[in-house]
Amino acid sequence: MHALDGVKVLDLGTFLAGPFCATVLGEFGAEVVKVERPGVGDHLRRFGSDTECGDTLVWLSEARNKRSVTINFTDPRGRELLRELIAWADVVIENFRPGVMEKLGLDFPAIQEINPAAILLRVSAYGQSGPLRDLPGFARIAHAFSGLAFLAGEPDGIPVTPGSTSLADYMSGMYGVIGVLMALRARESTGRGQVVDIALFETIFRALDELAPAYQKNGFVRERMGADTVNVVPHSHYRTADGHYVAIACSHDDMFARLARAMERPELSAPDLFGPKQNRLAARDVINKLVADWVGALSCDEVVARCRAAEVPAGKLYSIADIFEDEQYQHRGTITVEDSRIGPLAVPNVIPALSETPGEIRWLGPELGEHTDAVLGQILGRSADQIAQLRADGVV
Would you put residue 122 in left (φ > 0), alpha (ψ -120 to 50) or beta? Predict the structure, then answer.
C-alpha cells in the first residue's frame, strides 16, 4: 500500500519544476501519465549528462515511475485525447508560460467543465498574475529575482550560483506537492478541484528567513558574506591542516561555550569577552580567525571528532565521492541502485520515509512514448487499429 494509491496525475509539464512534483507524487503511489510531444519529448531528456540510451542521467533519475505518452497538441484529435485524459485525472500539472493552456482551450474553467473535481497545478516563472506573468524564466532567473543569488558569493565578489542551478525548480516542485495534497484534502469536503498557482521565485523567497522583515523594520540590506551567516558567529567553513573544509555552526551562546572548551580556550566564552552573541558579532573577524587558526592546526577528522565530543555541530564539506563512502548514507539507503535502460544506476532514493505507506521507485525514466499504446488502450479505450491510425497520422 502506498499513501497516494488511486490518485491519477496527468503531467503536461516540461523540464523540471512541474514534472518534479509529479515525480514525488508518483513515488508515493500516484499513477502518473506524462504527455510529451511526438518525436521530441520533454527537454529534460536532453538536459544533463548524455547516455547511450539517448536520454540523459537527469531524465533517467527524475522521470521515474511515469508512463510516457506522446500526443500532438496541434492536432484537434490530439486535443481531444488530452481532454479525455483530463476527465480521467485527479491532478493536472502544467508549467508552460501563462496563456499556453488558454490557447489550447484548456484554462481552468474549461478543465472544470470536463472534470469539476480536477486540481490544476500551474507553475511559472512569475505566477499567473501580475505585470511580469507573461515573461519566460528558469530557475537561474528565479534565484536572481528572489534575492538569493545576490547573497551567494564572497563579499565584493561576483554573485555565484547557489549550489544547484535547478534549486528553484526542485523547491517549486516540492511546494507543488504541498499544494496538491492540500487541494486533495479540501476536495474531500467540497468535491471540487481548484488551482494551485506557484511562481518559481516565490518558493525561493519564502526560504530566505528574515530578509524581508529585517529590511522593512531596519532598512538592512543583507550583502554577500561568503560562508558566514548574518546573525551568528562562528557559523562558517574553515580549512583544515590536511586541506579539507569543515562546517562549524554555533547558533547560540551555550554552543559557543562548548566550542571554546573543545578548543581548550574556555575563557573565550566569558561574559565580558565573547560569551554573549552581540560581543561575537561585534568581533566577527577576530572570532573567525581564532576558530580558523584552531581548525587549521588539525586534520579534518580531528576537528570533527573534537567538535562532536563537545556536542558542537560540525562536519566535513562532502564531495559526491565522500557521500558514496559515508556510512550514514549507506545505512539510510539515501542512494539506491536501480535497474535502468543503461544498466544499474545510482539515484537519490525516495524521501520522506513513511513507516506504514512508504514510497518506492518502480522504474526509472522511460523511453519516449513507451506507454502510449497501453494508456490509449487501457485508459481511453482505443483499439489497436485506432491507435495505429493515430500514429500513422502523426497524432501520437
Answer: beta
What digits encode the pLDDT tens for the residues 369-383? 999 999 999 999 999
In this structure, are 307 and 340 located in the same domain?
A: no
Q: Is the same domain home to 289 and 338?
A: no
pTM comes to 0.95
CA distance 312 to 203: 31
Query: Which tens digits make up the pLDDT trace of 88-140?
Result: 999 999 999 999 999 999 999 999 999 999 999 999 999 999 999 999 999 99
**257 lies in which domain range?**
235-239+245-316
Residues 269 and 386 in one domain: no
Q: What share of the chain is helix, strand, coil (3-state, %, to 5)?
A: 40, 15, 45
300-309 and 253-262 helices, crossing angle to 10°: 130
Please state, in angstroms and as integers, the Cα–Cα distance from residue 310 to each residue in 153, 256, 303, 306, 313, following that order: 30, 10, 11, 6, 9
Place of cell 561555550: 257
Choosing from 316, 342, 363, the residue where a domain stops is 316
334: cell is 539515501
> Could you give the CA distance from residue 359 to residue 28 in angstroms, rounded to a whole number?
4
Domains: count for the chain: 2
Active site residues: 169
Grid coordinates of 42? 520533454
Please report whether residue 83 resides in a domain. yes
Q: DSSP state, 229?
A: B
Asked if the structure places residue 3 within a domain, the reply is no
Residue 196 and residue 87 share a domain: yes
Grid coordinates representing 32? 502518473
Residue 80 · residue 42 · CB < 8 Å: no
